[in-house]
Amino acid sequence: MGQSHISNNVRNLRFNHHEMTQQQLADQVGVTRQTIVAIEKGKYSPSLELAFRIARVFKLPLEDVFTYEGADSTNK
Amino acid sequence: MSYQEKKNIVSLISTVLIFGFYCLYVYERFKDTILEGEALFRFWGAVILILIPITIVAKIIIEIIFIIINRIATREVEPSFADELDKLIGLKAMRTSYFVFILGFLLAMGALVLQMPPATMFIILFLSGFVSEVAGIVSQLYLYRKGV
User: Considering just the CA atoms, what is the radius of gyration of chain A in Å?
Assistant: First the structure.
C-alpha cells in the first residue's frame, strides 16, 4: 500500500502542456480529479488503459510518462 | 481534503449517530421487558430488520444535506461517477468489512457453543454488523489518504 514502484512525470507534463489543470486532464482521460492527484503523488498506479490514455493526451509514448523503478532489482 | 474523504467522514459520523440513537431508543423502550423463547427471537429479528430501512433513509437524508452544505461552502461539485480508483478502494473496503463481519459471526456462533444465552449471540451479531460497516468506512478513508 502507499508508494508504488511506478513513478511518473504527469505533473511536469501538465505544466509544459499549456499549464493544464488536474481537472482538465481528469476530464480528458475520464477519471475524477482525485485520481489524477493520487497518480501525481505516487499513491496510485493507474491501470494500463488509463496510463495509455494519459500518455495519449500528452502525445508521448508510455515510457516517457511512467517509469518502472523496480525493474533492475526484480530482473536480477 | 478531497470530496471522497469528506464524504467518508460524514458517513462515519452518521453511521455512529444512527446506530447509537437507535440502540438508545431500543434500550429505553424495552429495558424492562423480559423476553424468552420465540418472543426473544422475534424481538431481535425486528430490531435488526427495522434498523436497515432507518439507516438507509437517514443516510440518504444526511448525504443530501452534506452535498448541499459542501456545495455552498466550497463550491465544489461532487464527482458524477466512480472511476477505477473509487471502485478499487470500494472493493478493498468491502473486503475488510466482510472480514470483520465474518469474525463477528464466528464469535456469535462461539457464544452459542459456549452455551451463552441467545441474546448474547444476537448482540454480538448486531454489533458485528455495526463494527463491520465502520471498518469499511475507515478502511476507505485510509486508502484515500494513504493510497492504493
Answer: 12
Query: B70 in helix, strand or coil?
Result: helix
Query: Are the Cβ atoms of B148 and A41 closer than 8 angstroms?
Result: no
ipTM: 0.81
What's the angle, vertex CA B6, arms to CA B135 and CA B23, rounded to 5?
A: 45
Q: Which domains does chain A have, with CATH numbers?
A: 6-75 (1.10.260.40)
Quote the minimal CA–CA distance from A76 to chain B in Å: 26
Contact by Cβ (8 Å): A46, A10? no
pLDDT tens track for B85-112: 999 999 999 999 999 999 999 999 999 9
Q: Which long-range contacts (CB under 8 A, 24 or more apart) does A11-18 make?
A: A11/A40, A13/A58, A13/A60, A13/A65, A17/A57, A17/A58
pLDDT for A20-35, tens place per residue?
999 999 999 999 999 9
Is the Cβ–Cβ distance between A65 and A8 less than 8 Å? yes
Residue in A3, A32, A45 nearest the CB of B83: A32
In the numeric block, the cell 485510509 is attached to: B142
Distance, in angstroms, between A30 CA and closest chain B CA? 8
Assigned C-alpha cell, B5: 474523504
